[in-house]
Design goal:
The chain has helices at 23-51, 60-87, 93-119, 127-148, 161-174, 178-193, 204-224, 230-272, and strands spanning 155-157, 197-199. The protein is an all-alpha fold. It has one domain (23-252): Four Helix Bundle (Hemerythrin (Met), subunit A), CATH 1.20.120. The protein has a two-stranded antiparallel sheet. Helix 3 (93-119) packs parallel to helix 5. The longest helix is centred in the last third of the chain and has 43 residues, at 230-272. It starts with 22 loop residues before the first helix and ends with a helix. Pfam families: CDP-OH_P_transf. It is found in: Endomembrane system; Membrane. The chain crosses the membrane at residues 21-43, 63-79, 99-119, 125-144, 205-226, 232-254.
């Protein structure tokens, strides 16, 4: 090597990023695999039901297995970044994360909407396909926008994709009337690309999110096995998701306004003194 020259693959004198998979990348791949398995499970159940001549929506056990897989995908997504910060990541980490999120939190929930919209008892229209496409495109746009932004504060701009995916699936599981469900799904898609802010789960909050995921898995497992008060278990896992998504932005806004008032009072006190 000639003295003063950068190593091969270096950019601007900086060492080239590692291109080998590390532990955080394997967690990200686990996210993608869970999303793929959820779609495969729904598709296989749908094909089997059609082959058996059974009409109507999928059974609760088929839906619950797919939802649990996506909850596992959300758990992988929650911790891959934390592992990368603690143990180091690779140069592929950010790109892998976006690609995995498109599968698990874009295509998979969109497929849930299509399955719900085409297997229900009503005469379904093209609206479920429109709503499913809106979810997928919203996730793609959100991830592209997030990649182009420089992290500036402790909040996400727009609803994070995992929360959006869980909200869409919650709507599907509650099985509302067609137009109510379509409206709710379109609202969630809009929230993901909106300017509404959601706090980033860090520190203790991240573990609270993980605990919430585990409780949701337990509720869905009980619902799938038709445990006593199965419907109550479904609502116990579903309603907090929707409330969290709807109320958190108001909490962020109220906190920001309170912080602004505190700063104004502090400046006023300094001026009076």
């Amino acid at each position: 090597m000639v003295a003063g020259t950068a190593p091969a693959g270096a950019v601007g004198g900086e060492p080239a990023p590692r291109m080998r998979l590390v532990l955080a990348d394997y967690l990200t791949l686990g996210n993608a695999l869970c999303g793929f398995m959820a779609v495969w499970h729904l598709a296989a159940a749908q094909v089997g039901q059609i082959a058996a001549g059974i009409s109507g929506p999928l059974g609760r056990s088929e839906l619950a297995v797919a939802v649990i897989l996506l909850l596992l995908a959300a758990a992988f997504d929650l911790f891959d970044g934390r592992v990368a910060r603690k143990l180091g990541g690779s140069g592929m980490g950010a790109e892998l994360d976006n690609l995995a999120d498109v599968i698990s939190f874009g295509f998979a929930p969109a497929f849930f909407v299509v399955t719900w919209g085409t297997l229900g008892p009503e005469d379904r229209s093209v609206l479920p396909l429109v709503a499913a496409a809106a979810v997928l495109l919203a996730v793609v746009v959100r991830l592209a926008r997030f990649s182009c932004q420089t992290p500036a504060n402790d909040n996400f701009t727009g609803m994070p994709c995992p929360f959006g995916a869980m909200a869409v699936i919650t709507v599907v599981l509650l099985d509302p009337p067609l137009y109510v469900g379509i409206g709710a799904v379109l609202l969630i898609a809009w929230l993901m690309v909106s300017q509404v802010e959601y706090p980033k789960p860090r520190g203790r909050t991240a573990y609270m999110v993980l605990a919430w995921i585990m409780v949701s898995v337990a509720c869905l497992a009980g619902w799938a096995m038709d445990a006593p008060m199965a419907d109550a278990l479904l609502y116990a896992g579903a309603v907090p998701v929707l409330l969290l998504i709807l109320l958190v932005p108001f909490y962020v806004l109220a906190t920001r306004q309170q912080h602004r008032r505190d700063e104004e009072e502090a400046l006023r006190a300094v001026g009076e003194s």
